[in-house]
Amino acid sequence: MIRFEHVGLRYGIGPEVLADISFTLKPGSFHFLCGPSGAGKTSLMSLLYLGRKPTRGLINMFDDDVGSLTRTELVPLRQQIGVVFQDFRLLNHLSAFDNVALPLRICGRPESEIKSHVHELLEWVGLGDCMNRLPATLSGGQQQRIAVARAVIARPRLLLADEPTGNLDDEIGMKLMSLIEQLNRMGTTIVIATHNLNILEQFRYPRLVLNHGQLRVFDPQDETNFDGDAA
Predict the structure, then answer these.
(1) Which of 16, 25, 137, 156 would give a disulfide with 82, using CB separation of 3.0 to 4.6 Å?
(2) Rounded to whole angstroms, how far apart are CA atoms 39 and 128?
(3) Are residues 40 and 69 in the same domain?
(4) Averaged in consecutive runs of 10 residues, what is the pLDDT profile of the chain (231 residues)?
């Protein structure tokens, strides 16, 4: 579903922050994105959610060559991607309900369907009593759960999440990981950027490991390629 071939990315005239990145994500796969601060995780995520184009190389997504598409042609691709940003990026003038409902409204779903789905999902993440509150009145953990709900409400083909459990206690974090796993079992491809060693140990999915702009892929289930730098 997603293929990177010898992708490089630089900002301005500086050195490449990503160099010769090649990997493939199959439909319905689940990967963690790991690496130390400054390794290029945010840059790689921005390429995956089509926030920018590579400096060189090929990115093929949903059978389209991303580099050849115009900004308008990228829109329908972006609508198939759910994103949880580390800074949430909620719309502060909209209620929790309306923030989560936004992807469905963009897709033209009927309001009766939107109401049912949003109520159900907000109840599931423990925010059923916060539907009409504005983001500024909620805690960081509550805002994070709204961001996750908004990203998954339309059942995207690809879900990208940057530290989705970072502001949550262990119980809520595990519940959200369970929700993401359910989405994966329904066919959504998942990429989660995380430093959380507890998450990595409990959910032993393959990892995309970045270091100094270079990427390697390994599976922690295969003990022959596991090492301590993998987180």
Answers:
(1) 156
(2) 38
(3) yes
(4) 95 91 95 90 94 94 92 91 91 96 92 94 91 94 91 93 84 84 92 89 92 88 54 50
